[in-house]
Design brief:
- This protein has 48 residues and is mainly alpha-helical.
- The protein has one domain.
- Helix content is 81%, strand content 0%.
- It is built from 3 helices and no strands.
- The longest helix is centred in the first third of the chain and has 15 residues.
- It is elongated, with a radius of gyration of 12 Å.
Length: 48
């Protein structure tokens, strides 16, 4: 997991949802939504 990718994804999420940025929010993003992003990338890599 690249930290910069996770931070970029979290910033986009904040912009879309107009959430207040916080460490706890970032942690929740990494544990939830970002895991889905990683799974999608992993499955795309297997198809190639």
């Amino acid at each position: 997991m690249a930290l910069s990718n996770a931070v970029s994804g979290y910033i986009e999420r904040i912009k879309q949802r107009e959430d207040f940025p916080s460490f706890n929010g970032f942690y929740e993003y990494v544990k939830g939504d970002y895991q889905e992003v990683l799974e999608e990338k992993k499955s795309k890599g297997k198809r190639l």
